[in-house]
Amino acid sequence: MDRGADKMTEPRRPLSRDRILQAALGLADDQGLAALSMRKVGASLGVEAMSLYNHIANKSDILAGITDLVAGEITLPTPDFDWKGEMRARSQSAHRVLMRHPWAAQQFQQPHPPGPNMMAYLDATLGCLMAVGFSPAQADHARNTIDNHIYGFTLQRLTRPSRARELSRQARRELKAIPKDRFPSLHRRTEELAQGQGAEVDDFDFGLTLILDGLDGLR
């Protein structure tokens, strides 16, 4: 008797939009957006690329979808008297999430149709700001200013060293190319960094504090 005939064949999991987007998210994180294609997403799921089109319109739809998945990982602010604390927690969470997905900071700035997670992210942010006296327009401008800081800092952190030791090594290399007589202030600051001084300040929180304190005067 053929024992193999008695074995149940495990059914293949049906394709769904969520399965496709989760696979695409993994590929984007591992290989970057340049390597992302319908063919590769299909191959990672064990299907032909054409099978994806029953659930996904095109690559742009995939990009919008995985960007929305990332937005769903960010801690949402809640209306609270301590709106600065809520905005700080939200901003720090967004920065951490975007660092986990190195491609996402640029995609957050693209005009993708907002998905449910992105709409919840935007609505919670506006709601938190409007609850403490910002007008809808002010809240939107404030959100945009904060987000520009998050995205810009994240992109810089992804391409430049951030640890004090790495900064110190880079500063020592750059110091030799900065004439002290022509650029005295730049030379002085680079010399400090080369000696390991002043790198302990968290630039992200420093800039965020300046923004939040400045916005406080608009209410």
From TrEMBL:
Protein's job: TetR is the repressor of the tetracycline resistance element; its N-terminal region forms a helix-turn-helix structure and binds DNA. Binding of tetracycline to TetR reduces the repressor affinity for the tetracycline resistance gene (tetA) promoter operator sites.
Keyword Transcription regulation in record: yes
Pfam families attached to this UniProt entry: TetR_C_1, TetR_N
Protein name according to UniProt: Putative transcriptional regulator
UniProt keywords, alphabetically: DNA-binding, Repressor, Transcription, Transcription regulation
Highest taxon of the lineage: Bacteria
Stretches assigned to the HTH tetR-type domain: 14-74
DNA-binding region, residue range(s): 37-56
GO molecular function, one term: DNA-binding transcription factor activity
UniProt record, GO biological process: negative regulation of DNA-templated transcription; response to antibiotic
